């Protein structure tokens, strides 16, 4: 497993398919990817041992992600937490800080 840090962040791209079940009601006729789905994709890259507490210290959604748009998530360790930023091109869509005990949090390989 690789552990990202300030000098070696983890970056990955993702797109939420237009037929994702959450989009039907969010919002009919003009779907927007719910923030919780974006967070799920970001958090899915971190391997959490069962029973280890985790929490979002903060999160801010700045712009909407539309279905099938490609976004890039960047995660880097910052102190005892993990800072993440989600972008579409140069635009920041979301950013936040996830905190958990440093010694048990790893990135999926």
Question: What does this molecule look like?
Answer:
- It is a single chain.
- This protein is mainly beta and 109 residues long.
- It has a single domain (10-107), classed as Hotdog Thioesterase (Thiol Ester Dehydrase, Chain A, Roll), CATH 3.10.129.10.
- It contains one helix and seven strands.
- The protein has one helix spanning 35-43, and strands spanning 10-15, 46-47, 55-61, 70-78, 81-88, 91-99, 106-107.
- Strands 1-4-5-6-3 form a five-stranded antiparallel beta sheet, with helices on one face.
- Strand 4 (70-78) and strand 5 form a beta hairpin.
- The longest helix has 9 residues, at 35-43.
- The radius of gyration is 14 Å and the shape is globular.
- The mean pLDDT is 81.
